[in-house]
Amino acid sequence: FSEDADTLFVDTAVKYSKISTAALAPKEVLKILNVAMQRAASSKNTEYQALLEMQIAKNEWLQSNYKTSLRHFDRGWSLSKDIVNPKLKRSILTFKTSYPFWYGRYRDVIRSYEESIPEVEKLPNGKFSLFAGTIVGWSYTMMGQISQGVGMLDSIRVHCRKTNDYYVASTASVAIGGGMYEISRIDDAIQFCEEAIRDADRGNCNWAKIWGSLLLANAYYYKGYWKEKGIFYFKQYLKQYDKVEMRVHIFPHLMNLLWLMDTHRIPRIPGFFLAKEIQRAKRSSNVSLKGAAYRYQALLQKKEKQPVNKIIRSLKTSEKYLIASGHQMELDKTRCELVRHYLLINKQEQAEALIESIGSNLAAYDERFIPVDLKPLWKKKKSDKDLLKDIFKYSQDIISIKDRKELVRYIISTANQVTGAERGAIFIKEKKLLSSKLVLKAAKNITAQDVSHSNFTPFREIINDVIDSGKGRILNTDQLIEKETPSIDTIRSCVCFPMKLRGKTIGALYNDNRILNSNFKESDLETLGFFASQVAVAMENAENYEVIQQFNSKLKEEKHYYEEQHLENLHHEEIVGKSSALMNVLKAVEQVANTDASVFIYGETGVGKELVARAIHRNSMRRDRPFIRVHCSSMPETLIPSEMFGHEKGAFTGATQRRIGRFELSDKGTLFIDEIGELPLDVQIQLLRVLQSREFERIGGNKTIQSDFRLIAATNRNLKKMVTDGKFREDLFYRINVFPITVPPLKDRKEDIPLLAHYFLKIYADKLAKPVNAIPDSALSQLLEYNWPGNVRELENIIERGIILSPGSSFVVPDALTFSSGNIYDSEVLTLNENERRHILLALRKTNGKVHGPGGAAALLDINPNTLISRMKKQKLKKASLFR
Question: 154: closest CA among 679, 516, 590, 470?
Fold first, then answer.
């Protein structure tokens, strides 16, 4: 097979596996995935191998091959660390979020998800990501955060039904049904599960049919319709289960029906026994299912009148697994049984302590959920004093959180938890000169599209009213709602609190419910209003901390930049000379310095273009801010975008940490782009956009960054000709060529040579600790006669070398100048390109081809060795050509 055919096959196999997650056909999928893995391995495509390992892990788990599954997942995760492709990386991270779900580790699912979500949530993109989103929502309900889980699931459900994605819609509906079942809202559970099965038929989602049927069998039993409906759905469950040859369970609903059979509340179905199912669940790798299995084991032990201590051991094991899982609803059921057995052995204190914890969790939804036989032990309802105590604790927590993303996530999750809301958001009112705008700053289960929808208009008005009046509001619309299935189209209730900072209302904390009944009470407004004000203080602190961190990070990057550039070696505080040509340059510098106009400096290599740029900066209003240089010819083309724009950690291979780019570093200062003619055309387009808007994004980032910099560019090339030849963009040329300055070559201002020579003599005599303090007339004549193709830079190098070679106090001109009349430089006028080639050849011949280190050509030319190598490649110079 060709490599393209292998890639196509692997890609199709991965897509088929993703789709088949809902269809539950693991045997067939595994055959295809294993063939795909062979082809990916033969083409050495590690990115696809990582993705295939993850898909194989999932399907092995569905076959109950837990150790094999874990081995494939670990292998895939290890391979994924080298993935650069952002789309594939996103798929792997989505898989990492959902994988713990299959093992019943719901707390890990939520932790992984909450570390990756933005401040304002968006609906996941793509079928698999949406399916993973339902897993996250389902995990919230398992953890007892029913309102948050249902809110998230309903958003996905409505979106998928609108886009005709019925297999994900059916998964979301069955998950909502599961949540409703957990809090004994049986009618709602039935409505959502029946909707899920209808949608599953349209979307070929066997997953939703299996679990929807099992949930309906349980729900109809509790409604008293086992014979009429329950047994039908149980048989549907068995039919679907056998159809896909599924060998795994992840929920305890089957054990509940088997328990009902063991206790003779429903007729036994041949071949089904609770003890057998308990053993299978205990052998599984699903910690939640194990936890439930040990509780049902305790119930069987109780039924068989086994010793209480043995029953308690089973219940404690159940508790251990369920704590690890995070399945709060199952944990409360286990603890209820523990309380009953503690009472049997007269452990009253342990029983009372446990029932308080259980009661607080269950009463958050409805006191009816607390078992009747245990209710006398639950001494008190949640009082206003308790709420105030909780709010005080939460307020202390939020003040200590410095990371803004972590803070808003904690604020909204806490507000949802305290109020029992499904959705939450923070709104800020941004005031402008003649108007104000309501801005969504952070949200959970509410998207920007939801807020802009016409259905949300009345609630935007409530938020505006709360901000304007500074008073909280509650709106309950339950009595106005008459509908069969709850929907996003109608909000049942909402509560909104003003966020006050130093006596002013700056925004609002908003929560609402679309499915669950309202828990919002007028009596809570004042207490929760205090929490909202603490939120305002905490957000301001976090924003100030972020600004300080960014400032410190920028200072660190600037320091690192200056260290890289070795600016301590730049000793030119002034431009030396008195020729009329130089005076014209300095006059232009004076004219343009105090403006923000872009400056374009022309001149041969070595004439001092950077010195002119620094003089402009030093005499400008930006003199106290950074002067940042970008030397385009010294960088490989592939690194230029990263150097200019910066990059985020993980943006590409080798990006081990975030790096601030030159645009960002030069904010409020001056950006000097040297050798701008070397920029690739694609980078020229990006530069033009930045110059037009002063906005950009780091590579691998999505945050728009603004930078107010003054641009100075320089070149030794003929840009007008490059524009004509199509090598430089005309629009960029006119954008940067606002105020051109031409720096004359040294041969055109020879009267400056004596001043420059004495200037360099003093610097290098001090630096090298040599007693050279005079330049004889004969030596000066030699310097004046020389043509200086390397300009001021070459003169500086000659003086330094001469000082090293001079035996006494008088300067001796080194032999290098003998080439001025020899075979290297002819009297004909050469192009700048040919001059550069010959000058590099001269340096390489003088150093016998040595480039790096002391006495090398790079040191002789006073340029970075990498820059010299880059220019040698450009000129196609090799050692073999040195002595031709």
Answer: 516
**Domain topology for 587-742:** Rossmann fold (3.40.50)
Model confidence band, residue 515 (pLDDT cutoffs 50, 70, 90): confident
Which token pair is 399? 């003040």
Segment 182-211, tens digit of pLDDT: 888 899 999 999 999 999 999 888 888 989
The contacts of residue 685 (CB under 8 Å, 6+ apart) are 729
Residue 556: band (very low, low, confident or very high) from pLDDT cuts 50, 70, 90? low
Cα–Cα distance measured from residue 535 to residue 531, given in angstroms and rounded to the nearest whole number: 6
CATH 3.10.300.10 fits 385-545, yes or no: no
Question: Which of 279, 293, 295, 282 shows the shortest CA–CA distance to 341?
Answer: 295
Query: To 10 degrees, what angle do helices 308-325 and 328-344 make?
Result: 160
Lowest mean pLDDT among 64-68, 580-584, 641-645, 729-733: 64-68
Q: What is the Cα–Cα distance from 147 to 558, expressed in whole angstroms? A: 47
Can you identify the CATH homologous superfamily of domain 116-248?
Answer: Tetratricopeptide repeat domain (1.25.40.10)
Among the four given CATH numbers 2.30.30, 1.20.1070, 1.25.40, 1.20.950, the one describing domain 249-381: 1.25.40
Tokens of 434: 């003649």
Q: Which fold has domain 1-84?
A: 1.25.40
Number of other residues whose CB lies within 10 A of the CB of residue 806: 21
- CA torsion angle 129 289 166 93 (round to 10): 0
Per-residue model confidence as pLDDT tens digits over 239-262:
887 776 555 667 799 999 999 999
